[in-house]
Amino acid sequence: MATVEVQGPIMQLLLLLILAQMSLTGSSPPPDPVACAHGTSNCTINNAYASFPDRRPCHAARAAYPRSEHELVAAVAAAVAAKRKVKVATRYSHSFTKLACPGGSDGAIISTRWLNRTVRVDAKNRLITVESGVLLRELIRAAASAGLSLPYTPYWFGLTVGGLLATGAHGSSMWGKGGAVHESVVALRIVTPAPASRGFAMVRELGTGHPDLDAAKVSLGVLGVVSQVTLALQPLFKRSISFLKRDDSDLAEQVASWGRLHEFGDITWLPEERKVIYRQDDRVDVSTPGNGLNDNLGFRPLSASDLVASRIQDENLQKNGSDAVLCSANRVAQAYLESRAFGYTNDGVNFTGYPVVGYQHRMQASGSCLETKDDGLKTVCYWDPRIRGTFIYNTGLSLPFSRAPAFVADLKRLRDRNPQAFCELGTSGVLMRYVKASTAYLGKPVDSVTVDIDYFRSRTPGTPRAHADVIDELEQMVLLKYGGVPHWGKNRNFVFNGAIAKYPRAGKFLEVKKRYDPEGTFSSEWSDQVLGIKGNANILDKGCAMEGLCVCSDDTHCAPEKGYHCRPGKVYAGARVCAR
Ligand SMILES: Cc1cc2nc3c(=O)[nH]c(=O)nc-3n(C[C@H](O)[C@H](O)[C@H](O)COP(=O)(O)OP(=O)(O)OC[C@H]3O[C@@H](n4cnc5c(N)ncnc54)[C@H](O)[C@@H]3O)c2cc1C
Ligand SMILES: *[C@@H]1O[C@H](CO)[C@@H](O)[C@H](O)[C@H]1NC(C)=O
Ligand SMILES: *[C@@H]1O[C@H](CO)[C@@H](O)[C@H](O)[C@H]1NC(C)=O
Ligand SMILES: *[C@@H]1O[C@H](CO)[C@@H](O)[C@H](O)[C@H]1NC(C)=O
Ligand SMILES: *[C@@H]1O[C@H](CO)[C@@H](O)[C@H](O)[C@H]1NC(C)=O
């Protein structure tokens, strides 16, 4: 999720109210995704939204909280000796799918919560080494205090280094090696299983140029526990950012050129409004005046009671199907976000006009809802599962850069059939970013444009969503017609079915997996499905397509009793969607 992307269905009717009442005094920090009934045993693990795609939490027999690499090795060894399956849990666990679930129900969780130290900053060689549980926020701060920065990162800084690498997370760039963080990794240390004769666990040190780095940089967490990561930095620089709103008539051409023109460029398309917000975002000399700050409005602490009220509105709109109301609410919210520059300020306080110029470490990412002054759930990050507020799906796909213009043209045809259906995407619209082909085996196979959307999710399984057929068609179009691949940390299940076949070097990844983890200690049902080792990610069941657990192939996968049947897409006839 990203700048404007995250402000989807939440930010509608009550947006103004929420922002007006924003607390400046604190925010309740997100909960720990791991909860154990007795000390560190009999545990459940969930994601940050407290809901996996199949809506069931996972169980584990125990959880370990190592505070050093030495303790980490002991934790892996204990699990291997006891023949338990293992997965890593992070401070917040943002991935949507069951990546963090150990196999079976009596596995072990190793949390990187306390592996959160900066090990060393080597200013001369522009390198930083951190433990894998370090938040992107801390990495950015530690680098900046040595006059250095990581050029391309996700826009939300609550992610851990281990988690964002494992899922191939990225910002946006077509320059250099592109927008993914793993392109900056030069070395790492990973703890893997070992034979009993070697104490059941070992540290593997993958230094600069080590061939296995291409497996370990983007590993989905199945090779072992990454202990430390060394990243290459650049001298701290400044950026100059303007958001330009234009009509969408030439978007198909722009998508091919924007990323080449602007180092950090991205594109937010608002299909219903027929407008595009172009992020014109470039590196400038440090002498350029400006002390800009990015404090994204959607990542600020928001009032829990307003989020709950907003959710009730969203639920009613889903039921009543009043497109016009939703669309006009979006437009009001959108105008407001634009007037506030989405949370960018020129001086850390006020927005006085574009461009906003500031140091990279103040501009690249944000997340003020993480500040940990507990106010008893009065204000929270908007997705906090302890209140009945926002509940959404986040789809993140990418398609070959060369095919992006054709995709945009197709999506315009779908839009033209019913523009108001796209109001379901809220103010976040369709976010497009740039990521280049990677040497990482599970990184992008080719230069890519990523497509991010957020949309309403019901708390009641099987409940029809307004215009779900249009969103499903969009997703299947990217995947099937344009050869797209999923973001490893986002999405609903069906998106992963067959995905691994689109990675030409998946076989090399699996060879490393066999060498590092021959017994499959770090494998789970879900990772086996995603990697094509065993089974597949679809859950073929009654109503499965209503939940994104499958693509429908007959009516029972939809909700015929509610009038939803399995039909071809309207523009992409190869899609199969549940429609009325
Ligand atoms: C508000 C928000 C904004 C976002 N913005 C962006 C964005 O701009 N760009 C983008 O690409 N993504 C974005 N994301 C998605 C995000 O990148 C992924 O969800 C990411 O994986 C989450 O990182 P995490 O630290 O929460 O890891 P988790 O979800 O907890 O873990 C991911 C996987 O990595 C494994 N893992 C974690 N640490 C280790 C380790 N040390 N060793 C081995 N395996 C490990 C876990 O077991 C799990 O399998 C966003 C998510 C949110 C919630
Ligand atoms: C584990 O905890 C749950 C409650 O969270 C309890 O119902 C269950 O009996 C416990 N199981 C064991 C083996 O202790
Ligand atoms: C590491 O995490 C712990 C627990 O979440 C926290 O109390 C501590 O301040 C963190 N340390 C650093 C250096 O961020
Ligand atoms: C939708 O329906 C609910 C309850 O059925 C009602 O309270 C609400 O006013 C309706 N909203 C709109 C916008 O029609
Ligand atoms: C910000 O704007 C307010 C009025 O909107 C003004 O009172 C204040 O002085 C400004 N702050 C700065 C730092 O310019």
Descriptive overview:
With 580 residues, the protein is α+β, with helices and mostly antiparallel strands. Among the domains are: 34-111, Uridine Diphospho-n-acetylenolpyruvylglucosamine Reductase, domain 2 (2-Layer Sandwich); 118-235, 2-Layer Sandwich (Uridine Diphospho-n-acetylenolpyruvylglucosamine Reductase, domain 3), CATH 3.30.465.10. Helices cover 23% and strands 23% of the residues. The chain has helices at 15-20, 69-81, 136-145, 161-166, 213-216, 251-261, 304-320, 323-339, 360-363, 404-417, 468-481, 506-516, 525-530; strands at 34-38, 41-45, 58-64, 86-89, 108-111, 118-122, 127-131, 148-149, 185-193, 201-206, 225-232, 234-235, 238-247, 266-270, 275-284, 293-294, 302-303, 344-345, 356-359, 379-380, 392-400, 430-435, 448-456, 485-486, 565-568, 576-579. The strands form seven sheets. Strands 19-13-15-14-22-23-21-24 form an eight-stranded antiparallel beta sheet. Helix 6 packs antiparallel against helix 10 (404-417). The longest helix has 17 residues, at 304-320. The protein is globular. The two termini are 30 Å apart. Residues 1-11 have low confidence and may be disordered. The structure holds flavin-adenine dinucleotide and 2-acetamido-2-deoxy-beta-D-glucopyranose (NAG) (4 copies). One 2-acetamido-2-deoxy-beta-D-glucopyranose is lined by residues 347, 349-350.
